[in-house]
């Protein structure tokens, strides 16, 4: 079962599609969010969750203090379940007297990064492990102009996967491994 780990929506269960997604484990999410919480980047943040699946990463960020989240998911069925998950989390947070905004876009993460505007404080990218490094390099390059000053990109990969080349506008600040999962964190170079 996938659930919100902490914050205003703690304990809310998320519906997971029967196939086509690989939700981030509680252990990895807890490690990821401990680091983000410590940096203070989530408070009032605008979040982008790419390859969103259940929306667990963006919804966890909302539960922990982010103000709005935009989710991009290619699969129509997963996007519909994500909308339901977002409503549940929004309702749980609203019961604590805080309002958050969500939007779900059905489409390609790379296509979104290359064409859509907006600035984000936190970007989560949790692609299928088989996505090629070249696609991830293009994704990172497309995200760099959309990252707010002081913002971060968190890329989740298989621990055995290669590390994509970092575009000049970004610097990799952390690389951590949790079993079969690797988390890579990027910030703007300037």
TrEMBL record:
InterPro entries according to UniProt: DNA_methylase_N6_adenine_CS, RNA_MeTrfase_RsmD, SAM-dependent_MTases_sf
Keyword Nucleus tagged: no
E.C. no: 2.1.1.171
Swiss-Prot/TrEMBL keywords: Methyltransferase, Transferase
SUPFAM superfamilies, A to Z: S-adenosyl-L-methionine-dependent methyltransferases
GO molecular function, one term: 16S rRNA (guanine(966)-N(2))-methyltransferase activity
TM spans (from-to): none
Listed name of the protein: 16S rRNA (Guanine(966)-N(2))-methyltransferase RsmD
Species this protein is from: Pseudoclavibacter endophyticus
């Amino acid at each position: 079962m996938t659930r919100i780990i902490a914050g205003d929506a703690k304990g809310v269960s998320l519906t997971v599609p029967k196939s086509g997604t690989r939700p981030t484990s509680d252990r990895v999410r807890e490690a990821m969010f401990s680091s983000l919480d410590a940096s203070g980047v989530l408070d009032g943040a605008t979040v982008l969750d790419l390859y969103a699946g259940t929306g667990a990463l963006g919804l966890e960020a909302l539960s922990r203090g982010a103000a709005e989240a935009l989710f991009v998911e290619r699969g129509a069925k997963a996007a519909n379940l994500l909308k339901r998950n977002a409503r549940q989390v929004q309702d749980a947070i609203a019961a604590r007297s805080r309002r958050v905004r969500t939007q779900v876009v059905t489409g390609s993460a790379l296509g979104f990064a290359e064409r859509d505007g907006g600035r984000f404080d936190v970007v989560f990218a949790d692609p299928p492990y088989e996505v090629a490094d070249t696609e991830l390099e293009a994704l990172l390059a497309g995200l760099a102009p959309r990252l707010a000053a002081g913002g971060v990109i968190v890329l989740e990969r298989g621990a055995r996967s290669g590390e994509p080349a970092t575009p000049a506008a970004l610097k990799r600040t952390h690389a951590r491994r949790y079993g079969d999962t690797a988390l890579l964190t990027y910030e703007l170079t300037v």
